[in-house]
Amino acid sequence: YLTPAGSGAGDAARTAARLRLASALDDCRRGLDHVMATVENLFQERGPEDKVWASMVKQALKRRQPGFNESYYGFRSFGKLLDEAHARKLLVLEPDEKSGGVIIKSYNPDY
Asked: Residue 6, class by beta-carbon neighbours within 10 Å (0-12 exposed, 13-18 middle, 19+ buried)?
């Protein structure tokens, strides 16, 4: 008995791998969605001359969603989640030399 090419255990493993990747991408997207909504709210609440710090975003996010944990969305740290948003051109980040913190200079409102 011969099985058709492209079927069997190899296909099942590839399908499982694709499903895991799709799930991880969905998790990443949901994490970014939470961050972007929080950043947008903070920018709207604060004046244009007020700084929005990364630490503020995390605090506000934890108030909105007390169970929020960036590792659930596939990130080792909150900074890595912000770095991903920056890499996707969703946020403009600027390190603050004096404090060692990160300032969110702007965000992409079309996210």
From this structure: exposed
Q: Could you read off the pLDDT of 42-93 as tens digits, one per residue?
A: 999 997 789 999 999 999 999 999 999 999 998 999 999 999 999 999 999 9
Say which residues have a Cβ less than 8 Å from residue 23's Cβ, sequence separation at least 6: none
Rounded Cα–Cα distance for residues 111 and 91 (Å):
10
Closest CA to 33 of 73, 67, 62: 73
pLDDT tens for 23-32 read: 555 678 889 9
Distance, in Å, from the CA atom of 1 to the CA atom of 72, rounded to the nearest integer, reads 45
Least Cα distance to 78 among 21, 31, 30 occurs for 31
The widest CA-to-CA distance across the chain, in whole angstroms, is 73
State the Cα–Cα distance between residues 84 and 89, nearest whole angstrom: 9
